């Protein structure tokens, strides 16, 4: 199996377009949700509503992922991605200048967010088309690093915009970034026809294909391998703020976690050959949980940051799953398969944060983080068959 290089990946114009628009999307969304949370809190004084506003952008992944994902294969991908950016721009402008009451703002974010999984799925499914073979895996690695970097930059920029222009100005900035991304996508990507045909209503087809994907042992194993270790990771990270007792200290640890993820993704993507990358999936998934167990000893901020960085470096285990996942699903439903993968990940992370948060209320944050780490180790061991190449050999489903 011959490996690609980062230079070959960035030499592809369509990937550069996807990369640039993705960075704008992630950074803009970070600014949007921070600004919306601040705006809701300023109007209501309610910490609960402010937190709900911050999470509102992710909740629609549950419903959209269950009911609408077939649209990612039934419609041309460029049109879907451009539409997603336009919807995001209009939504931000309405939030900033529409004079909407708080309930209407939250409803707007929830309703427009229902289609976010579809827009994400169209983007993810196009990547194997523009980067065939091992180049696709490196492309995913680059996008993962870009996601972590854009989130950090977006939160930092969001804070600056909030200080200078207030929440409305920050939301307007996000609208501008979305408009730029829409232009970049429209001008930089060629037209591609829809991947699959409409065989039923969108909801019915989504439910049918999701069911068939989950019934297939190989696909189900790879999905669970991508979801469950990250559920435990999200639970551990959700306890960092209460563990350290302050946003400033927690920010250092969470930034170290983002840096560890970026380093791990780059190192495994750059220096591990394709076969080795797939063999590393299992030990790296185990690594994802091990350092969090150390929080049972009550480490200070320095050691907490080191442990978090080492743990999140294990997220590069997912690179070894990508080729097998693409090969396991029929091409005509690839968009929905990637959408199911991302929707399940978002939903699972929210559930993991909630469960470990509840545990932290009972036994204190440090021990709860350690429990999440231990659960991550057990999950990786249970999923060893799916994490190891050749561990599950069922045929891909016929849909």
UniProtKB/TrEMBL annotation:
Pfam families xref list: MFS_1
UniProt-annotated location(s): Cell membrane
Transmembrane segments: 17-40, 52-72, 103-122, 142-164, 170-189, 221-244, 250-268, 280-297, 369-387
Signal peptide coordinates: none
Chief location: membrane
Key words, A-Z: Cell membrane, Membrane, Transmembrane, Transmembrane helix
Membrane topology classification: Multi-pass membrane protein
Domain of life: Bacteria
PANTHER family on file: INTEGRAL MEMBRANE EFFLUX PROTEIN-RELATED, STAPHYLOFERRIN A TRANSPORTER
Name of this chain's protein: MFS family arabinose efflux permease
Organism: Nonomuraea angiospora
């Amino acid at each position: 199996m011959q490996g690609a290089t980062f230079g070959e990946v960035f030499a592809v114009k369509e990937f550069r377009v996807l990369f640039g628009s993705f960075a704008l999307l992630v950074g803009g969304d970070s600014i949007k949700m921070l600004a919306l949370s601040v705006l809701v809190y300023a109007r209501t004084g309610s910490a609960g509503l402010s937190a709900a506003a911050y999470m509102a952008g992710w909740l629609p992944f549950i419903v959209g992922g269950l009911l609408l994902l077939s649209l990612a294969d039934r419609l041309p991908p460029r049109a879907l991605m451009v539409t997603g950016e336009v919807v995001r721009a209009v939504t931000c402008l309405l939030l900033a200048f529409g004079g909407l009451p708080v309930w209407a703002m939250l409803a707007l974010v929830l309703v427009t967010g229902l289609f976010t999984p579809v827009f994400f799925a169209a983007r993810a499914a196009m990547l194997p088309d523009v980067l065939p073979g091992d180049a696709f895996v490196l492309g995913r690695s680059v996008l993962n690093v870009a996601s972590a970097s854009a989130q950090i930059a977006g939160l930092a920029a969001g804070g600056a915009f909030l200080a200078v222009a207030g929440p409305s100005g920050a939301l307007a900035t996000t609208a501008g970034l979305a408009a730029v991304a829409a232009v970049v996508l429209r001008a930089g990507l060629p037209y591609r026809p829809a991947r699959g045909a409409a065989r039923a209503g969108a909801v019915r087809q989504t439910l049918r294909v999701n069911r068939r994907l989950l019934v297939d042992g190989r696909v189900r194993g790879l999905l669970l391998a991508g979801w469950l270790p990250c559920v435990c990771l999200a639970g551990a990270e959700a306890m960092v703020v209460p563990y350290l007792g302050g946003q400033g200290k927690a920010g250092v640890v969470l930034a170290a976690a983002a840096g560890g993820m970026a380093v791990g993704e780059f190192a495994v993507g750059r220096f591990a050959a394709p076969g080795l990358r797939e063999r590393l999936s299992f030990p790296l998934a185990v690594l994802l949980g091990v350092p969090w167990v150390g929080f049972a000893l009550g480490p200070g901020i320095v050691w907490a940051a080191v442990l978090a960085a080492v743990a999140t470096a294990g997220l590069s285990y997912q690179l070894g799953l990508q080729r097998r996942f693409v090969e396991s699903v029929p091409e005509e439903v690839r968009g929905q398969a990637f959408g199911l993968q991302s929707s399940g990940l978002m939903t699972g992370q929210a559930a993991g944060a909630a469960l470990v948060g509840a545990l932290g209320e009972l036994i204190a944050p440090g021990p709860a983080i350690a429990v999440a780490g231990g659960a991550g180790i057990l999950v990786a061991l249970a999923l060893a068959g799916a994490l190891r190449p050749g561990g599950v050999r069922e045929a891909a489903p016929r849909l």
